[in-house]
Amino acid sequence: MEPLQILMIVLILAGIWAIVELALTIRRARSTVGEVDKAVGELNETLAETRPVVAKLDGALDELTPALSQVEPLLKSANIAVDALSANLVEVEAVVRDVAQVTGSVATAQEAVAGVADSASGAVQRILGKIKSPAADSDRVLKFVAESAPDADATGAPSEAPAGDDAPNPTRYYTYEDAASAASTTEGEDANA
Hints:
Blueprint: H1 3-128, H2 134-138, E1 140-146, E2 172-178, H3 179-192
Antiparallel strand pairs: 1-2
Transmembrane segments: 6-24
Keywords: Membrane, Transmembrane, Transmembrane helix
Region (Disordered): 147-193
C-alpha cells in the first residue's frame, strides 16, 4: 500500500468521525433548542398573565399622579402650620413670663397694702387706747349662762329637767369673762353652798 492510500483512508476515517460527532452535537442542540423553546413559551404565557396586572398598576399610577402633585402643597402648609405653632408657643411663653411678673408685683402690692392696713389699725388702736395685750386674752374664761333661771343651778349649769314635751327648753349662750372675776364668782358660790 502506498502512503497516499493510507493517508486517504485515514482522512476518510477522520471525516466519518467528524460527521458522526457533528450529528451527535446537532441532536443534542435540537433537544436543547426544544427546551429553550418550551421555556420561551412558558415565559410568553407568564407575560400574557402579567399584562393585565401591569395595566392595573399603570392605571393606579395614573390615579396617584394628581394625588402626588397635591402632597407637596400639603407638606408646605403643614410646615407653615408648624412654624405658626412654634411662634404661638413663643408668645405663650412670653405671656406666662408676664403673668409671673404681674403675680409677683401683685404679691408685693398686697404685702404693702397689708403693711399699711396694719400700721393704720395699730395707730387707731393706740389713739383709742384699746391695745390688747396677749396676757389679757389668756385670762379670759368661757362662762355658761342660761336665760331661764329656774332651769339652771347655782353654778350656771343646767339642772336636770323633766324629759318629754312638757320640759321647758331654755335658751343657752356663752360669754367671756375675765379669769379673776370668774374665780371670785366661783369662790362666792362655793362659800354660799
